[in-house]
């Protein structure tokens, strides 16, 4: 689990780093970013995971997410993984922004030719946490998870499958029911095959229908988001939570779109919301 | 002065726009960004200009500058111009990042082949302010100016030449004495010719030596900036101010480098500093 330091820059009193390592799960080098606030010597800090959306790498939120001021204020470590395996050996759908590289959908693929490298579920749930725990001053008893769009889907599903590990789950404009929308049907069908029972553990609404529960969920969704009606369908998540008696906070944000201008606007609130729960 | 809207996104309650227009000064289309916070109907707000550094366009600070939260809090409009003329008709030094496109140095060039298009001083001092005044809810009696590196040079020189217009001047890692350093000698020599008397109005230290004064100057400079010793030489500005009796606030920031990780860390302080002076 040797880490290579790609870059480290002082920011908001802490260190914004970018690192790479050879991943066993994906069989590729993987790059991720970590922000470590200034802290007392020896202190271990809570950690907030951020899963990114289609076409993104770790870099988008690292450059445009505006999380560092809030993470420094609340003493929270922020980890941003990549969204898929990378490299010339990794099969891709070159003309499709919503499948293949940049579109791992946080699943362990079971179909050829994807199953060898597209193991983002195990990478995010098992391997990368071990790397983070071994190399950064994190308190792994205090983890929260968030993400955007495809990464909002990732945050909700990873969090709902592991409620004992993630004390708090939030999402910006998440794909809440991938089994029901074009992006998700395409990705899950090709990564997992057409047996839809295998999709349910990768669908936040289906997970809740099947019994998953969490007491601390926050979702922000812009009303001017071009993907709201066809791909995101936030109302499905609201309905699933209501039917299950889950008290999720789902906020429709008037006039906001799908971009980092939206994410950055509410990022500080999400960091503070997680921090309150991680320090409780 | 027709404006074309390239994009508008809601952010922090306001609107982050990107616009283009046909510039008379540069003879090209020019792109710039403007953030307008939420405001009372009819209200005109103070404006903070941000001039960018080498290789940048309006986009770098717009995406990575983290100014919107502070501008929304303090009700300040933020304008970010490009750093040079653009387009296939504009002469360039294609292999040189520090000259030609992306490196206008905020001068009106007098030498061929640069003089026709490289008129960034007049563009920033005259033409773009007219465009901004005609199209946005700005109070042009309350203007401040800031910038980074080459744009810090721009902010200091534009501000020192026009102290009646800019109530406050700040800079991040500015080139303070271009006449004395490689970046500046190369650019001023080629844009203006080798008669160095013509360089003095484009050199913050020389302007102060020649009598320019301002009561509100703030400079932040990282001590881990790779360009500090050779290109920035902050101490020259400190000396020029001291010799002239100018009470500038020059802060050496321990461990910070030349990147937007540095700029974004101190951006909110700069916005607040300008706002206090623009609203005084």
Automatic annotation (TrEMBL), chains A, B:
GO terms for molecular function: S-formylglutathione hydrolase activity. It catalyses: S-formylglutathione + H2O = formate + glutathione + H(+). Coiled coil: none annotated. The keyword Ribonucleoprotein does not apply. The keyword Transmembrane does not apply. InterPro entries: AB_hydrolase_fold, Esterase-like, S-formylglutathione_hydrol. Keywords: Hydrolase, Serine esterase. It is an enzyme of class 3 (hydrolase). Its EC number is 3.1.2.12. Pfam families: Esterase (PF00756). Belongs to the esterase D family. Serine hydrolase involved in the detoxification of formaldehyde. This is S-formylglutathione hydrolase. The lineage of its organism: Bacteria, Pseudomonadati, Pseudomonadota, Alphaproteobacteria, Sphingomonadales. The gene is fghA.
């Amino acid at each position: 689990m040797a880490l290579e330091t790609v870059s480290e820059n002082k920011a908001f009193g802490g260190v914004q780093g970018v690192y790479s390592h050879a991943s066993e799960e994906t069989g590729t080098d993987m790059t991720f970013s970590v922000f470590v606030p200034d802290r007392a010597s020896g202190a271990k800090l809570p950690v907030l995971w951020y899963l990114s959306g289609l076409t993104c790498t770790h870099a988008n939120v690292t450059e445009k997410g505006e999380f560092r001021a809030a993470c420094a204020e609340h003493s929270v470590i922020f980890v941003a993984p990549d969204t898929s395996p990378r490299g010339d050996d990794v099969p891709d759908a070159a003309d499709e922004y919503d499948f293949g590289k940049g579109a791992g959908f946080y699943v362990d693929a079971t179909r050829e030719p994807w199953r060898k490298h597209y193991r983002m579920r195990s990478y995010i749930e098992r391997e990368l946490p071990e790397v983070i725990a071994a190399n950064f001053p994190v308190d792994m008893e205090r983890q929260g998870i968030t993400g955007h769009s495809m990464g909002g889907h990732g945050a909700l599903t990873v969090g709902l499958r592991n409620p004992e590990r993630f004390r708090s789950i939030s999402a910006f404009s998440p794909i809440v029911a991938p089994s029901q929308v074009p992006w998700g049907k395409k990705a899950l069908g090709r990564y997992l095959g057409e047996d839809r029972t295998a999709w349910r553990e990768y669908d936040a609404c289906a997970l809740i229908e099947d019994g998953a529960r969490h007491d601390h969920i926050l979702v922000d969704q812009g009303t001017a988001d071009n993907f709201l009606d066809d791909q995101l369908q936030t109302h499905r998540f609201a309905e699933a939570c209501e039917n299950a008696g889950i008290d999720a906070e789902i906020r429709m944000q008037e006039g906001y779109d799908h971009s980092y201008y939206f994410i950055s606007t509410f990022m500080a609130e999400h960091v503070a919301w997680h921090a309150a729960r991680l320090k409780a």
